[in-house]
Amino acid sequence: MDWSKAKTILIFAFIITNILLGFVLLSSERQVETTTKEGFIEDVTEILKSKNIFIDTNISREIPSLSTLIVEYDFVDFTKVNNNFFQGNGTIESKEQNTAEIFFENESIIVTNKKNLVYENKKTTKEYKDLDEEKAKDIALEFLQERKYDTSDMVLSYISLKEDGYYLEFSKLYKDRYLEKSSTIIELDETGVKRMERTWLNILEERDTPIYISTAPKSILSLLSMKEVYGKTIKDISLCYYFEPTDHNDYMKDPKEAKKGKTMPAWRVLFDDGYKVIIDNYNN
Questions:
Q1: Torsion sign (Cα): 94, 197, 149, 199
Q2: Among candidates 161, 205, 146, 157, which has minimal Cα distance to 181?
Q3: pLDDT (tens digit, 9 = 90+) per residue, 78-104?
Q4: 209-212: which pairs have CB atoms within 8 A and are 24 or more residues apart?
Q5: Do the beta carbons of residue 41 and residue 59 sit within 8 Å?
Q6: What span, in angstroms and rounded, lies between the C-alpha atoms of 249 and 244?
Q7: What's the rounded mean pLDDT across residues 171-197?
Q8: Which of 195, 205, 198 is nearest to 184 (CA)?
Q9: Under a CB-based contact definition with an 8 Å cutoff, are residues 234 and 255 in contact?
Q10: What is residue 58's DSSP assignment?
């Protein structure tokens, strides 16, 4: 074999390969740049408007990526919850594994799959007057803190005035990014907190490798196929960490059995009525 000739062929092959790789990378970079240009964003705005989807917020132009988080559900200990809410005086009724109901006077708690907690209070005595958004937030946070919930990693992400009081949604933050789906929802009126629903995630580890997804202008075009958002106005578009049990093969058959897993980056789209859509589009 003529090794000198073979060496020349290999070098030539490497050069061609590098040229092709450079062309692919450059083409991909140009595509990403196109979807973040002002003209593209204006076109997206007009296309969405044709379906009565309006935008009342800035659309990010960043090339989006986030590292992966390993998360687990904040599992509910029935006895601990009974102590924190009712000083241990509630009656615990466990009908099936990982599910229980706790009753105390006019209050009740239902825990499902040990990770979803719903509290309800049927008292009618008014304790508060002149409710406004700030006072509603203070009442909600005080309620959580008195029941020994850590509020340092949560932020009020949505609040609205309802006919009988206020609806508040608190979201979990990690490094100034939302972690979905992790939320604490509270409904309250002049009698105090009427209802709370909570499903929370704890962070175990952060991985180093960033994962990229489609840009915000390109991603929100997927809203065109969602008739449920027609007629709504987008108030916020945020890059977030997103944990979806059905994305994990271990839990595909029964996502309710999910205990922990990894997050992926996604776009969190919040509408004016509190409706929320998570878009995880990886086709750049």
A1: positive
A2: 157
A3: 999 999 999 999 999 987 888 999 999
A4: 209/67, 209/68, 210/65, 210/66, 210/67, 211/65, 211/66, 211/67, 211/68, 211/264, 211/265, 212/63, 212/64, 212/65, 212/265, 212/282, 212/284
A5: yes
A6: 11
A7: 96
A8: 198
A9: no
A10: P
